[in-house]
């Protein structure tokens, strides 16, 4: 199985931005902190990538809309 570098970059950026937002929330003592925000951003990125891959080029938002 060949991994596309673009997918890995998207996952890395999701983890990076989720980590930054999570660290800020953790610093201010919010309920959803570092780990929670990273898991949410990674899951959203995975769901979006799968929606694009399965939905095809004609209708990539079909899975997300249902």
Task: Describe this protein's structure.
With 66 residues, the protein is an all-alpha fold. 74% of the residues lie in helices and 0% in strands. The protein has three helices and no strands. The radius of gyration is 14 Å and the shape is elongated.
Unreliable runs, pLDDT <50, ≥5 residues? none
Q: How are helices and strands ordered from N to C? A: HHH
Shape: elongated
Note the gap between the termini: 29 Å
Task: Estimate the strand proportion.
Answer: under 5%
Mean pLDDT: 85
Q: How many helices? A: 3
Rg of Cα set: 14 Å
Structural class: mainly alpha
How many individual β-strands? 0
Q: What does the largest sheet look like?
A: none
What share of residues is helical? over 70%
Annotate the secondary structure layout.
Elements (H helix, E strand, L loop, with lengths): L4 H23 L6 H22 L6 H4 L1
Helix pairs in contact: 1-2
């Amino acid at each position: 199985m060949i991994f596309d570098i673009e997918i890995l970059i998207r996952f890395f950026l999701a983890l990076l931005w989720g980590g930054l937002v999570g660290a800020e929330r953790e610093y201010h003592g919010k309920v959803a902190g570092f780990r929670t925000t990273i898991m949410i951003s990674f899951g959203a990125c995975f769901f979006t990538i799968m929606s694009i891959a399965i939905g095809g080029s004609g209708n990539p938002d079909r899975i997300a809309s249902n």
